[in-house]
Amino acid sequence: MNVLITGAAGFVGGALARRLQAAASLGGRPLQRLILTDLGFGDSPAPGGITQHLAGDLTDAAWLDAALTAALGTEPIDVIFHLASVPGGMAEADPTLARRVNLDATQWLLARGQQQVEAGGRAPVFVFASSIAVFGALPAEVNDDTALRPLLTYGAHKVVGEVLVDDFSRRGWVDGRSLRLPGVLARPPQRTGQLSAFLSDMIREVAAGRSVICPMSPEATTWASSITNVVDNLLHAAVVDTTGWGQSCAITLPAVRYSMSELVDALVAQHGPAARGLVSHAPQPHIEALFGRFPPLSTPRALAAGFQSDASLAALVTSALN
Q: Strands 2-6, 175-181: parallel, antiparallel or unpaired by DSSP?
């Protein structure tokens, strides 16, 4: 089995790559190649054995085609985890770069699946990392029928990506699954453009005994998952039977909904009473409008398909740093 991960040096991509390298299998099938692509590789698994590095720019279609051909020869790609993106704040600041990464690169990877099928091969499973940013302004409850009204360029690009995955899947060129990821915790301190990075900061900094400022009020509510839970769901997406999903390959993942005050309580329960004094609040209306008004979340399609959230907020806080 040949598996490709884009954005393999990112927080989620690196965790997924490490899990796959350690298991050396997916869905009970052994991995022949684990191909990692990114501009550089940082903490990603080192090359060797089943693991290959392809360092380059996904927005360069000629490089991408040549690199994959050199890595695979005439062998097919069995699974593509497409995680590479230009996220939230970075996409707002540089929409041209965001279009190239979030839209152009996605189309070229999907086209690779088309080429594989038209050459007589099987369609690759295409796991696309979408985002809850597709929803934008939120109603009183979010469920499987909630309309997509993105408020940010990043969310708009993810909507387009979902539509492309649906269309290529309809034509039989890929076997698509688009997962709408919530906030993923706890990201490392490097700034990569996520406007919601403060949610990770709260967990990580308090665990280290350092003070942190939350840009939302104690009553603000959000959704999130631990990195462990998200990797579990990505791996499940690659092997789940999508029969009965209907016309759309997109699915909203279950997540833990909590308020900032509940998060502080969970941190106190884990680290002791002193943790409460480490968190202060300085609400920023723009940030709270984007991340602090999340209503109840209902995801029956995802639950029926075997996807899961963290068991509780306490479990999320524990898993987020593991």
A: unpaired
